[in-house]
Design brief:
- The strands form 2 sheets. The chain has a 4-stranded mixed beta sheet with strand order 1-4-5-6. A two-stranded antiparallel ribbon has the order 2-3.
- With 192 residues, it is of the alpha+beta class.
- It is built from 1 helix and 6 strands.
- 21% of the residues are buried.
């Protein structure tokens, strides 16, 4: 009677081994899937962060341009150079936000293109540890729309007040993210 029990016990030990290996295989596949999902989410978060850095950089360049327009001394728009352009006389094939040449600047440009003075960039992206990335600084340029700078009828309800003319300006700004290929371009219309 002891013989049949011993044979059944030997067969059961082999089945347990096969089932354990199958369970281990299933757990390994689940672990790999979770790891891959986590890696994908980390890349998506990094890309979103990079886009936010580029947007904030472009927005800071827009604010800098607005500050320049509201300053006491205005840029010379009639010269159509140095990042300040007059829409009626500028070369629209060159000064266009999608033209990559307009975004390259030199240290001799005092207004647009993000250069304050020689060797001093306007806005650069940081690494979060106090150091600066080697990416390009945020850049901007200003366009004065002289054809839209008129006094509109009905701008005041009082007959004894004079109409106040408003000048229309376009500010184009491009910010760069932590990686060189991430850029954000903004267009802002301001009246002063």
């Amino acid at each position: 009677m002891n013989k049949p029990t011993h044979t059944v016990r030997a067969r059961q030990q082999g089945v347990v081994l096969v089932i354990s290996l199958l369970m281990l295989l299933v757990l390994t596949v689940l672990g790999l899937a979770a790891t891959r999902s986590t890696a994908l989410e980390e890349r998506m978060t990094a890309n979103q962060n990079d886009k936010e850095v580029a947007f904030e950089s472009a927005e800071a360049a827009v604010r800098y341009g607005e500050g320049l327009l509201s300053a006491a001394s205005q840029p010379n728009f009639s010269a159509n150079a140095n990042g300040a352009y007059d829409m009626s006389t500028m070369d629209k094939t060159v000064v266009y936000w999608n033209n990559s040449n307009i975004w390259t600047g030199t240290a001799s440009e005092p207004y647009g293109n993000g250069v304050i003075s020689a060797g001093q960039n306007l806005i650069v992206a940081g690494n979060g540890d106090g150091s600066v990335t080697s990416n390009q600084p945020a850049r901007y340029y200003l366009v004065f729309n002289s054809s839209a700078s008129t006094t509109a009828a009905g701008s005041t309800l009082s007959t004894d007040q004079t109409f106040v003319p408003k000048n229309v300006y376009y500010i184009y700004a491009r910010g760069f993210g932590m990686t060189p290929n991430t850029t954000v371009t903004l267009e802002v219309v301001d009246e002063f």
